[in-house]
Specification:
By secondary structure, this protein is an alpha+beta fold. 36% of the residues lie in helices and 24% in strands. Strands 2-5-6-8-15-9-14-13-12-11-10 form an 11-stranded mixed beta sheet. A 4-stranded antiparallel beta sheet has the order 1-3-4-7, with helices on one face. Helix 2 packs antiparallel against helix 10, helix 7 crosses helix 11 (292-308) and helix 9 (216-231) crosses helix 10 (240-249). Mean pLDDT is 94; it is low at 379-388.
């Protein structure tokens, strides 16, 4: 009989067993990434992140698992539920602590339920839902679910949607100029102008993998990243040791775009990649160069994908400005269960209206395609999901 076990550290679960269930070797649910967050000082309970990973075991055999965290707030999740917490408070109820299935500080769609089949996934989330109230956790959430995981959730879960902007490669493109040629005249002209500003400022860019970035280059990238957060009076969760850890533990997944002036690093963007996708994650610069953010975070990533035949580029959450650079609106999905039945039922209507509003927003954006004749180069397939 499978047994649900809870793990306060991911290294309690053997890396080989965990990664064997990680579909497609997705970088953000890789054991090295998640364990690295814990080992390198990125997760602070003060900011709401206490590891409480869930796993189904049959003796020593790992059947299913989920990266999960007990949370005392909603910091670093990118699926915003502050209105829900406020509603609970108005009725004198506790919304926190809650239980989140997700990846800290990472609004990237991917595997969240690691298992060989849907039956094991359903068994895992049913066991977690039963365990949550016994643990004093008032709700269970699963953020940025991919199509395969969505099928494991039934109508008893609240369904939420949001929009990100993703780029998709046209197989006919052989270089960045082919991508440019697919844009309409205005967007193509503006994009070229931004690239000229960077070149005219004497800034050059290099793309490094984890082996090449290890040491001084990745240390500089962390300085840029930390400065970005400091300028916004925000908390830079990722530590210098974690950036170095990525280069050492996952070198093939690291893609560092390093901007230099006179041989000195002045900015950069750190991405991770899988076999078929590039994911933009961290950015920063110590010199104000017009167009550098667009070049490092978007244009270089597009060129990298075209040249290497990578199908998809996800540059991060939010940012309607990405539309003008070839990133099209793409839905993201989350599922939620609240232990308090009155709030769970009331929020069904709230979630339904939110989904309708999100759909209207996507439809409005579709009228502003950056591509010639409004045609997307290669539409991404819609995620398969269970009916909410």
């Amino acid at each position: 009989m499978p047994e649900l076990r809870l793990h306060r550290r991911l290294d309690e679960i053997p890396a080989g067993a965990w990664d064997a269930l990680n579909r497609g070797g997705h970088p953000f649910t890789a054991h090295a990434f998640l364990a690295g967050l814990e080992q390198q000082g990125c997760l602070d309970p003060e900011y709401g992140w206490t590891p409480l990973h869930a796993a189904l075991w049959d003796g020593d055999a790992l059947l299913a698992a989920a990266p999960a965290y007990a949370k005392g707030n909603s910091h670093g999740e990118f699926v915003f539920d502050h209105a829900w917490a406020n509603a609970y408070a108005q009725y004198g109820l506790d919304y926190y602590p809650k239980w989140l299935i997700g990846v800290p500080y990472t609004p990237v769609t991917g595997p969240r339920l690691l298992a060989k089949d849907q039956a094991r996934k359903r068994e895992l989330i049913a066991a977690m839902r039963e365990a949550a109230p016994k643990l004093g956790l008032h709700s269970l959430h699963a953020n940025f679910l991919d199509a395969d995981d969505l099928a494991a959730f039934d109508e008893r879960w609240l369904a939420r949607e949001d929009v990100q902007f993703h780029w998709t490669r046209d197989p006919a493109w052989r270089g960045f100029d082919d991508f440019l040629g697919a844009l309409d005249h205005k967007r193509r002209k503006n994009l070229k102008a931004d690239r000229r500003k960077v070149a005219d400022a004497g800034v050059t860019l290099r793309v490094l993998d984890g082996v090449e970035a290890r040491g001084e280059a990745i240390a500089a990238m962390h300085r840029f990243y930390a400065q970005t957060f400091a300028e916004k009076w925000n908390h830079a969760a990722m530590t210098p040791a974690f950036f170095q850890h990525l280069c050492e533990a996952m070198p093939a997944a690291v893609v560092l775009v390093l901007a230099e002036h006179g041989g000195d690093p002045v900015g950069g963007a750190l991405c991770l990649r899988s076999e078929d996708a590039l994911y933009g994650r961290y950015w920063g610069a110590v010199r104000d160069v017009p167009g550098l953010h667009f070049e490092a975070c978007y244009h270089q990533g597009i060129a990298y994908c075209v040249e290497r035949g990578i199908d998809r580029f996800e540059p991060g959450a939010q940012g309607q400005h990405k539309l003008a650079r070839g990133f099209l609106p793409t839905p993201t999905h989350s599922r939620h269960w609240l232990a308090e039945p009155r709030f769970h039922e009331a929020l069904k209507r709230w979630c339904a209206e939110e989904r309708r509003a999100t759909a209207r927003y996507r439809e409005g954006l579709a009228a502003h395609s950056p591509f010639r004749d409004g045609a997307a180069p290669c539409a991404a397939p819609a995620p398969r999901e269970a009916e909410p």
